Amino acid sequence: MNTKEIMDIALELSDLKEIPWDSGIVVQGDNIKKILFGVDMETQELLLGKELGVDLVISHHPHTGEQEIHFHKVLEVQIDKMISYGIPINKAQKALRKKVNSLERNAHVKNYDRIQSAAKLLKMPYMNIHLPADRITEKYVQNYIDQVLHNNPKATLKDVINTLMQIREYQSTPAGPVIRVGGSDDYAGKVAVLMAGGTNGGTDVFKAYFEAGVGTIICMHIPDDVREEVEKQNIGNVIVAGHMASDSIGLNILIKELRNRGLEVITMSGIIE
After folding, report:
1. 190 bridge partner residues
2. Is the entire prediction scored with pTM above 0.85?
3. Terminus of the chain with fewer CB atoms < 10 Å: N or C?
4. What is the SS3 assignment for 219?
5. What is the radius of gyration, based on Cα positions, of the chain?
6. How far is Cα 36 from Cα 47, in angstroms, rounded to an integer?
7. 100-146: per-residue pLDDT in tens?
């Protein structure tokens, strides 16, 4: 198997037709049989991969090349998600703009060549798969929540937490689901799982969802300044499911498929199996 075929598997599992901005193949590889896979894989992990004799290193998060510089562009996919919750397209675009511009400015100054040049010098095939895995996670968690709580219109945040804790990855981490805005006895209302699209869209995006009728947002992480602003709005709840555990859900589904196709996959760096 080669790197393109592995990327194609990820795209197929996530219902994507093309490689998104935050994912890509940095160093191509063929005849791949053994993979080292982690959430964050940089130069030290490339060296470890060389030591372990793997044929490919895969990172979930983008840490180099065009994927890092153009990361902000992938937030555009959040617009379709927002529309599906009844947010007007023009409002969705404007709500995302502040975060998109901030990410673009921050990425513009980065040394985007550091890790990709190391991979090339080591002749180590290297790629990253971000949005596809996050889409798999988002769909899985949303379907699970909907299935368990669909007959409970008065479900509380405690009920949502208990439901999340039925998922294996959330049972196996010290950084599991927590309520960041709201109380355990607060009604959840309509629950939106927002885990794909680069990263959180910021305060304006959260507010747009709440104004469209969402009662509780489940996300992987939330910056403190956004959390404080959402608390001040006092119109919705936020549950942070946990970053590594949430990433691991989609990654594990992908890894299972790779193993089913005869590949050896060694996991590390945040992946909870």
Report:
1. 214
2. yes
3. C
4. strand
5. 19
6. 11
7. 999 999 999 999 999 999 999 999 999 999 999 999 999 999 999 99
